[in-house]
Amino acid sequence: MRNKWLMLGLTLLLSVFVLAACGGGEQEEDTSSDQETADTEETSEENASEETGGEVNLYTGRHYDTDQELYDTFTEETGIEVNVIEGDDDELIARLDREGEASEADLLITADAGRLHRAKSQDLLQSLESDTLNENIPEKFRDPDNNWFGLTKRARVIAYHKERVDEENLQTYMDLTNEEYQDKVLIRSSSNIYNQSLVASMIATEGEDAAKEWAQGIVDNMARDPQGGDRDQAKAVAAGEGDVAVMNTYYLGKMLNSEDEEEVKVAEQLGIIFPNQDSTGTHVNISGIGVTASSKNTENAQKFIEFLSGEEAQKQFAEANYEYPVNPDVEASELLQSWGEFKEQDISLNELGENNDRAIQIMNEVGWK
Amino acid sequence: MEKDVSSLNVRRRLPAYRNGWSILSFIIVILILIPNVTILFNFFTEKAENWGHITEYILPDLLKNTGLLIAFTGLLTIIIGTSLAWLISAYDFPLKKFFKWALILPLAIPPYIAGYTYNGILNYTGVIQTTLRNTWGIEVEQKYFDILNLPGAVFIFTLFLYPYVYTITRAFLANQSASLIENARLLGGSPLEVFFRVVLPVSRGAVVGGVSLVLLEVLNDYGVVQYFGVPTFSTAIFQTWFGMNDLNSAIKLSATLMFIVFSILILEKLLRGRKKYAATTAKARPLRAIPLSGGRGWAAFSYCLAIFLLGFLIPLIQLVDWMFLTFEKVASSEFLTLIWNSLFVSLTGALLIVFFAVIIGNFARTHQSRLSKSAAKVTILGYSIPGAVIAVGISTVFIDLDSGLSRFYEMTGVESRLFLSTSIVILISSYIIRFLAIGYNSVESGFDKIGNKYTEASRMLGMNMTKTFFKVDVRMLRAPLISGFLLAFIEIIKELPLTLILRPFNFGTLSTNAFKYASDEQIHEAALSSLIIVLISAAAVFIFHQVLEKESN
CA-based diameter of chain B, in Å? Predict the structure, then answer.
């Protein structure tokens, strides 16, 4: 009697799990289709993958609707299905690491070069030789070992209040630490990757001591404890909490084109400065992509990266999201062009990753919250 | 009460000691323990490279922030939760019937969404400041509208978590305290005296139970503290683990956090005290409400209304406003899939949680042993550890499981070598581990209430344990089962970190969709998915209330 119930219980437990698993299967099919019924769709999908190039699996830390449109275009052109898991850069890398050789991911996209370097140094990426990529992407924005490739650029600039700030005295990141901007500097927290990479780049260009001195100066000049995102810094400038903010270019682009007219008003009060034009250049970071070491569809993965570096895709990156395209043949959006050309920091982007730990430590040490 | 029952219980070794119930419970407990142990196992393995740096620069701030958050959120949720519970159960005033359930509604809004929304209302481009500025030309001092700081986080946590205290306390007051309170009133106690000298001491157990849920939620939160720039343990664990790539320091932090959690749980036990003021009769008489006349009635009404507006209606209206702003840009047929996905995982997860909770609950109740007690304790484990930590533990286990099954996969022609860890099974398992405590609490209190007498009568009359369970216990447990199910459902549909880290390819839910926009500062675009989450959870809250009401009648 006892055994009977035990068996029943275990069977029930097992069947629940199996049911859950089957339910999951159905799910995935559902998501990739729109209107067709589940049955016909299943067969048509199988046929599709047999006839064409199959699929490519992507882990991405970028979450823009326009990116999904690009993937759809790619599928239309090549017949290759793009399966996506969106997540946080760090978590996706940790997931790749745990899954190891068995991982189903073919590609990793992150919104920071330092993260790509980390994936590379954990042997999660593999080298990819492609003439198309060498042609489309300047050397500076590729990994020397071809483990990763930049897709878009964003500059970390200084936004200032047009009326309250004399831009003559504001030409470098270091100027932000001047007495003039005491209690006037707005910048987000040290847990933010863009700030970490900015400090990491300073370690690369000017050395650890200078980077620490700068971080200390910023903390001393902060208008308030760091909080919120880049947009919040811009709003605080408009609100008069401070006069200058450090932010990424595309956030300003998005605010200028926001559906909320109040955000537009805020952005219109701000001017931007590309810092360090006479010295080391403005800090530029990338969104980039690499083929995973465990990839089982390397050919498709290569086609995908080549597609994203091509003119059509680059144009869409530039127009829809106010990022700078890496492909020099593609022009930046009108808005970005109106801000003018600028000199970029000249460092190997891998250094952003190499210096990341030190950057975090420095920021903690000077009390950057 | 457990103690009383067991001492009355004739101590005998039931032949059913190793029956299916105990074995199933054992399996469940093992399943829950493995991922957590995987994490803790690492604690002793290696030296953490950044630990020195962390203890010097980060830990003091963490302890301070966490302490302040816990202290103030705890205090304020107690004040708001118990005062509302008291007003609603002891008095009659305008719209009281509506407030009775509407005051649970803040639970339907995930705190991180509430945080984004309130900042959106209050900041420079928010509706308040723009109205002041554009209509009357008033520029306000920003610091009075700044919510992104520690007091702001306390504000959010208090408003959106107090329903835990309110619900549990109110249920207790309504059903268990009638004779005590009415006697106190008869003896001439003023309302305040009755509240402080009778109500609070008597409902201490319920209040502490509710507050400990609130505090665990606060400790677990990542979204709010991250956005508000208030470093706590969960943000520090993220930063050291994923940012500094220092697993061991992260584990040391997790262990420190677990220490705090266990202190809270022990404190809870102590504060609940030796006595439980449970009713001695099976049918407790509900508390009779006194009508509040005139001004006092309206004062009670205004207080309830204020909390309801702040905790539900105002953020809801703001979300609706943003939804219209971005509807065309965001809405697509994809949302139907998202809704279906959210419902599917939440329903399945909640169902399994209740199922497992009942097995363990029944085992713990019928076997008064150390083993069964620790089985019950284990269920709380998942609830006390940050989601991201559980996610890593469970995925490590599943990947090992998959590699163990690889031969089986080859035989059956399954192509993927990570079949389980890339399927929805891992996601649902993680929900079970994370939220089993929620379902278990409901089921346990249900078992507590019916006691063992009916079960024992049934056993005496010759039915075996399983038959008794289905014929007697389940019928009496209906209400707690349903409320456990609904609470787990609400938690899962709001859940974020686990879903984000463990989901399969091409699988999104409403909360991952909201996160996708919010993480990139597109707060307006996140409104549609947030709104759907809130509405579905609000429906669940409403049903939850109906079930509780039915039970008490």
Answer: 81
- Residue B514 neighbours by CB distance under 10 Å: 27
- CA of B500 vs chain A CAs: smallest distance (Å): 6
The token pair at B64 is: 């301070």
CB contact under 8 A, A30 and B464: no
- Inspect the interface and report whether the beta carbons of B396 and A98 lie closer than 8 Å: yes
Q: Are residues A197 and A209 in the same domain?
A: yes
- Please report the residues numbered 61 through 100 in chain A whose beta carbons come closer than 8 angstroms to any beta carbon of chain B: 63-65, 83-88, 90-91, 93-95, 98-100
CATH number listed for the domain at residues B67-315: 1.10.3720.10
List the structure tokens of B180: 């005590």
Which of B326, B340, B403 is nearest residue A259 as measured by Cβ atoms? B326
Token output for B48? 């953490």
In tens digits, what is the pLDDT along chain B, a chain of 553 residues? 344 444 444 444 444 455 677 777 777 788 777 777 766 666 665 566 678 888 888 888 888 999 999 999 999 999 999 999 999 988 999 999 999 999 999 999 999 999 999 999 998 888 889 888 888 888 888 878 889 899 999 999 999 999 999 988 888 887 777 777 888 888 887 888 888 888 888 888 888 888 888 988 898 888 898 888 888 888 888 777 777 777 778 777 877 787 777 787 777 777 765 555 444 454 567 777 888 888 899 999 999 999 999 999 999 999 999 999 888 888 888 899 999 999 999 999 999 999 988 888 888 777 766 766 777 777 777 777 777 778 878 887 888 888 888 888 888 877 777 888 788 999 999 999 889 888 888 888 778 777 777 777 877 888 777 777 777 777 778 888 888 899 899 999 998 888 988 888 889 999 999 988 888 778 898 999 999 999 999 999 999 888 877 766 5
Question: In chain A, which residue's Cα lies nearest the Cα of B18?
Answer: A2
Same domain, A253 and A359: yes
Q: Per the CB < 8 Å rule, is A25 touching B512?
A: no
CATH topology (fold) of B17-46+331-508:
MetI-like fold (1.10.3720)
Cβ–Cβ under 8 Å, residues B437 and B361: no
Q: What range defines the domain where residue A295 resides?
A: 54-152+286-334
Q: Do residues A231 and A295 both lie within one domain?
A: no
Name the one residue in this structure whose structure tokens are 């963490």: B62
Return the SS3 of A325. strand
A192 and A128 together in one domain: no
Whether A217 and A237 share a structural domain:
yes
Nearest to B157 by CA among B110, B201, B199, B122: B110
Residues 6+ apart with CB under 8 A from A207: none
Identify the CA nearest to B242 among candidates A351, A113, A88. Answer: A88
Q: What is the C-alpha separation between B366 and B1, in angstroms, rounded?
A: 14
Q: Cα separation of B193 and B254, whole Å?
A: 43
**Residues B27, A87: C-beta atoms closer than 8 Å:** no
Tokens of A283: 């800090």
Quickly count: other Cβ atoms within 10 Å of residue B505's Cβ. Answer: 18
The β-bridge partners of A286 are A153
Asked whether residue A269 falls in the same domain as residue A189, the answer is yes
Are A258 and A359 found together in one domain? Answer: yes
Q: Is A333 left (phi over 0), alpha (psi -120 to 50) or beta?
A: beta
φ/ψ of B183, rounded to 5, equals -65, -45
Question: Burial of B343 by CB count in 10 Å (0-12 exposed, 13-18 middle, 19+ buried)?
Answer: middle
Beta strands A149-161 and A270-273: pairing type?
Answer: antiparallel
ipTM score here? Answer: 0.79
Whether A184 is covered by a domain: the verdict is yes
Cα distances (angstroms) measured from residue A206 to each of A219, A273, A344, B507: 19, 20, 15, 45
Domain limits, CATH 1.10.3720.10, in chain B = 17-46+331-508, 67-315
**CA B233/CA B215 separation, integer angstroms:** 13
